[in-house]
Design brief:
single chain, alpha+beta, 9-stranded mixed beta sheet, globular
Amino acid sequence: MVDAPAKRGIVVGMDGASMELVSNMIAWGHMPNLAKLMAKGVHRPMIGVFPTLTPPGWTATSTGSWPGTHEVMDFNIRKLGAGLDETVWGINTALSKSEYLWNTLERVGRKPILVKWEMSWPPTVTAGVQVEGTGPGVSNHHQIAGYHLFVAGKWAPRPIGGQRDPETLDPSALQDIRTADPVQLALAEGKGWVNAPTSYKPPYEVELVVRPLSRGRPDMLRGREGTPKIYYGLIYATTGEGYDRLIICHARDVNTEVAQLTPGQWSDWWRDSFTIDGSPVEGYGRAKLVALDPGLSQFELFMPQIWPAEGYVEPADAGREIHANVGNFLQNPARDALGVIDDDTYFELLDFHHDRLAEVAEYLCGSRAWDVLFVESHASDYASHFFLSQADEVSGAEIETIERCRDGLARTFASIDRMIGRLVSLQDDDTVFLAVSDHGGTPNQHRVVNVANVLEESGFLVYSESEGRKIDWSRTLAVDIGLVHIFINLKGREPGGIVEADDYHQTQLDIIAALNGYVDERTGLCPFALALTREDAEMVNLWGDLVGDVVYALRPEFDGAHGKQLPTARLGIGGQHCTFIMAGAGVKEGVALQRQVRAVDVAPTLCYLLGVGMPAQVEGGVVYEALEDTDWHLQ
C-alpha cells in the first residue's frame, strides 16, 4: 500500500470568520498569507451548523458529527429533567457524545498539539499537548483577574453606538459590570514614600487595587474569593513642563518598582503572587499608561487580563517548558474592553496575543514529535460583535463610524493573517494546511427581535403581574431556551407542565403560525426565516431531547452578528458561510470547489489525507473534489 498523501496537518481556526468577509479581506489586501494559501490550494464557502454558534460549530468541526449527534447545542443547553428556566453551560468537552479528532489521532498512535483550540476543555488529550482551549474572552477557568482600567479626571469610553449582542450570544464580553476603575490622585507628601526620584512638581500617588476573580464569568471562575492586591503608583514630573512619568511599585518605596511608564508606553510583563481562596497563585501583570495629562486633568492606566503561570497546559511539564522557553500566555486580548479602551491599545494586545499563539506553536512543534497542530483565534468573532456590526452602509451608521469599524476589521484580519504566515513556516511538502471557521458574521440592520416578546404577545409566555417579570408557569405554554429553541411546558415532562399530551402537536403548530405571522412594527416585515417542529428540525441537523419542540431562525436583518441566522445567510459585506481553505500535501492547486463542503467534512477529509481512521461518530464525508488522488488508498 502506498503512503498517505500527507504526513502532517496544520489546522487554523478563525472563530466567526465568514467566507464572505474573509474573501473581502483578501480582495482588499489585508490577508496576503491567506491569499497565497487560497491560490495554491482549494477553497469554498462552507455550510456550518445551526444555530450558527461557537459550541455546536467547533464541536462539529472537531468531531465530524452534527449537533444532533454530539449534543453540544448551544452556550446554554436545556437541562433535561429540570425546570425550563435551568440550563447547562455548553463549554465542556464532557458534554460531547462524539469522539474528538485529536483523540482519534491518539488512538492510532499520532500526536496532536492544541494551542487555544476552541471548545476543547477540559482536556481529553492523552499523548499530545494542549494549551488552554476553553472559550472566548472571559469564558475560561484559569484567569486570575480580568482587565483593570484605572481612570481619573476627564475620561470617557469609546463606544461605536448601536445595539449590543446579548451575553447568550456573545459571552466574551460581560455587560452588567463596571467598565472602569475610578481612582483618586492625591499628593504624595506625607504618605511615607521613600527613594522617590526628583520631581519638578509635587508628586502625586494613586492606589491601584487589582481584584482577583474580577470581570470573569461567575460560572467559570477558578475560585470563590479573591484578595485585593494594592499597587502604589507615583506620578511625577521629570521637567518643569508637567507630569509625565508613573512608577508602579509594590509598596511606597521606589525600590519595589515593577514598572515605570511614560504616556502611551507599555510595561514589560511582571510575575507576581495573588491570593485566591486564601492560597497564593502566580500570574503575570502588565500595564499601559494610556493617558497622563501634564496638569493631571486626565489619568488612564490599563492592565489587561492577569493570566496564571501554570494550570492551563496538559501535560503540566509542557507548560513549564513554554514558560521557560517562550514566556507567559494571554488568553483574552481585552475583547471585553473594546469600546472602553482606545482601539490602538486593543490591537497592540491582539498582536501580542497572536504572536504568542504562534510562538507557542513554533516551540512545541520544534521540541517534540507531532502530527497535527491545531491553533485557533477568536479575534475574528470579537470583530464581528464589535466592528462588523456597523462596518457596512446597511447598518445606517454615520460615515465616521463605518470608517472606524472597517479599519477595525482590517486590523483584526491583518493580525490573524500575520499569525497564519508564521504557522505556514511550519508546513513542508508533506503537510496539509487548513484554515476553517465555525460560523460567520453579518452587520446589523434592524433592531434584533426578542423572541420572548413575540411569545408573550402571542399569549404563550405569561409573566406574573405581582412579581414583576417572573414567569408564571401556571399559565405559560412555551418559553425560548438558548438561541433557537422553544420548549413547550408539557405536562408529565416539565415540573408543573400545563400542556396536555393530546394538545402537544397542535401547540407546536400554533407557535409556528404565530412566528410566521408576526410582523415587526418598525419595518412591516416578518423577521422569521424558518420555523419547524422538533421532528422536522432534522433537516437542519438537530434531533433528540435537547432540541426545542419548535426550532426557528431569524433573517439576518433581524439578528445580531450570528446565531439565529441560517448557515447560508448573507447581508452586506458579511455572511454565515464558514471559511474553508485547504492547501498542501495531496490537495489540488488553485481550485474554487463547486460541490458542497460542510463543517462535518473537515475532520474526515484530514483523516483521509493522513491515512488514519475516522472519528467514531463521524457523519461527514471526504471532500474528494479537493484531492489530487481520490483513490490513493486503493493502490
